[in-house]
Structures are given as structure tokens and as C-alpha cells.
Design a protein that fits this description.
Elements: E1 2-4, H1 8-20, E2 26-28, H2 31-41, E3 45-49, H3 57-66, E4 74-79, H4 84-92, E5 97-100, H5 105-123, H6 134-146, E6 152-159, H7 161-168, H8 170-192, E7 197-202, E8 205-210, H9 212-229, H10 236-241, E9 243-247, E10 253-257, E11 260-267, H11 276-291, E12 297-300
Parallel strand pairs: 1-2, 1-3, 3-4, 4-5, 11-12
Antiparallel strand pairs: 6-8, 6-11, 7-8, 9-10
Length: 305
């Protein structure tokens, strides 16, 4: 962590309390030093005093946010002012939170922990869909395997998505991915409620985790709902004729079928998984089987062992 304050007593007070909680801390005496140290150290959090000579905290926060190398760094403003205008200015400059001096050590630690927790949660989410990404997916599957909880893993992705992107562009392609994210979340919520889990692996790949007895029904429902909404993703002429025209690598026009969905289902109903990679491998294998079927389809692993 980086503590930025031109008052050495305040900086030392913050440092001692953070170190006592187990955090590594570096002190910067002014804004210019803070910017340099932020680039060198890449701290997870900067605690930044507002009132400093030459370069105040608002300007430092804006520069940190404006530099791609430090734009994701969490910032807490330290201010001696309780004026709402200063709070607004601090937050609009890019701060994640603020603390008014003099502050209680317990409040300091609580705000630090809260800011770090929110930042870590945000980094674990897909920016496109807002769904948990690979970090949370791995954690969820490891947890279920470790506690030997029965579960099914559904792995879904789109067929012919590259051709769709080539024809319509990435903006419309992103809308397709967002639609698929909403559909997976809806179905898991309906089938499992808070006990279920949905994750965005990346691109057009999604996973759903729910009870084994609900898995195949959920997979079939996902295919049905996607097919139901598919015509809305296309221009009428393409939807009516059932394909889009794109060029292959040689520049030759080819016809690509409309989007469809492939879902692979791996379950603990007939087997036990010992690690995440094993469950994902089975679901991926089943997804490849589903891709060989016409249109949107799912394939479930019913082998034992």
C-alpha cells in the first residue's frame, strides 16, 4: 500500500495501523513522489491526503486514473474537511472512498478492507456481462469438489460466432454475448436460486453450476430460449434466408449458418471429480459432442467411474 501525506505524523499513524493489520506500506511525502512510487510499486491501494503543496490529492487521483498503468489502483482520500463539496470532488477525481481526519484506527482498517474487497470482487467479474470470471469459477468448482457436494457443470458456447462477428461487427457480437449471459443467469436463478452459480469464462463461453437432477432440463431450456431470441439478433434478410455471407481467408464468399448453442453437461451423479480440470474436461468433451448435432443442442455425460 502507498500512504501519501505531507504530514509525517499522520503518515506514520496510518503506516503503523496498517502494518499491525499485516499490510506492507510505503510512504510518499508529496504528490510527485506518489506518482513515481505508484508506477514503480504498483500498489493495490493508495491512501491519499487531499491538502498537499504543489500537487494536491485531487490532481494526483486524476493522474493515477488517467494512466493505464495505474488506472485500476484503489484510492482512499484522507481529508480534514467534512464539506460535502470536497467529498464530491474527491469521488469525481477517481477516489473509491474517503476518510475524514481525525479518524479512528478501526474505521481506517474497516474502510481499507472494504475498498480492497470491492476491488477484488470487481476484478473477478467479466466487464462485458458482470458475471463472475475465471477466478470465481475456479473457486466455486474447487469448493464444491472439496466439500463433495453433488453438482452438475454445464459448459455452453456458440456455434458460428466468428462468422457473426465478421459480418455484423464486435458491437453486435457483444450484445449476443450479453444476451447469453442473461439467459444463463435467468435459468440458474429459476432452477436453483442462490444455490446455483453462473460464470463467464470469456468470449462466448459460459458455465452454469447447479444440482445434477436439474442439469439436463436447464441445458434444454437454455437452448430453447436462445433459439427463440435468435431471429432478433439478425437483419431480417439474413434471418429469413437462414445464413450470413462472409469471406473465407482467400476472400471467397461463403455462407455461414445462423448462430446456435452447444452445451456440455458433466455431473457427479454417476462419477466423482477430484479436481477442477477433470470436471471441465468432461464438460468440454460433451460440448464437442453437442456441436456435432444440428442446431442448438446439449450432450450429457452418463458414464460412471
Amino acid at each position: 500500500m502507498l500512504v501519501v501525506d505531507d504530514d509525517p505524523d499522520v503518515a506514520r499513524f496510518v503506516e503503523v495501523n496498517l502494518r499491525s493489520a499485516g499490510y506492507a506500506v510505503t510512504i510518499a511525502p508529496d504528490g510527485e513522489a506518489a506518482l513515481q512510487l505508484a508506477l514503480e510499486l504498483q500498489p493495490e491501494l493508495v491512501l491519499l491526503d487531499v491538502m498537499m503543496p504543489r500537487l494536491d490529492g485531487f490532481e494526483v487521483a486524476q493522474r493515477l486514473r488517467g494512466d493505464p498503468r495505474t488506472s485500476s489502483t484503489s484510492i482512499i482520500m484522507l481529508t480534514a474537511k467534512a464539506l460535502s463539496a470536497d467529498k464530491v470532488l474527491g469521488l469525481s477525481s477517481g477516489a473509491d472512498d474517503y476518510i475524514i481526519k481525525p479518524f479512528d484506527p478501526l474505521e481506517l482498517l474497516a474502510r481499507v478492507k472494504g475498498t480492497l474487497r470491492r476491488a477484488r470482487e470487481m476484478r473477478a467479474l467479466s466487464p462485458l456481462t458482470g458475471l463472475p470470471g475465471n477466478i470465481r469459477i475456479q473457486e466455486e468448482l474447487r469448493r464444491r469438489i472439496a466439500y463433495e457436494k453433488p453438482f452438475a457443470l454445464l459448459y455452453a458456447d456458440l456455434n458460428h460466432f466468428k462468422a457473426y462477428n465478421d459480418h455484423y461487427g464486435f458491437v453486435r457480437g457483444d450484445r449476443v454475448i450479453q444476451l447469453l449471459g442473461r439467459l444463463t443467469a435467468e435459468i440458474v436463478h429459476e432452477k436453483e436460486g442462490p444455490a446455483g452459480f453462473v460464470g463467464h469464462v470469456g468470449g462466448d463461453d459460459f458455465i452454469m453450476v447447479l444440482a445434477p437432477e436439474a442439469a439436463e432440463e436447464a441445458a434444454a431450456e437454455l437452448c430453447r430460449r436462445f433459439d427463440e431470441r435468435r431471429p432478433l439478433l439478425y437483419d431480417p434478410i439474413d434471418a429469413d434466408r437462414g445464413y450470413v455471407e462472409v469471406e473465407d481467408r482467400k476472400g471467397t464468399p461463403v455462407r455461414s449458418p445462423l448462430l446456435s448453442l452447444a452445451v456440455g453437461v458433466a455431473s457427479t451423479r454417476n462419477r466423482r471429480f477430484t479436481h477442477v480440470g477433470e470436471a471441465v474436461a468432461v464438460a468440454t468433451e460433451m460440448k464437442q459432442h453437442a456441436k456435432r448435432r444440428p442446431g442448438s443442442a446439449y450432450s450429457a455425460d452418463r458414464r460412471s467411474g
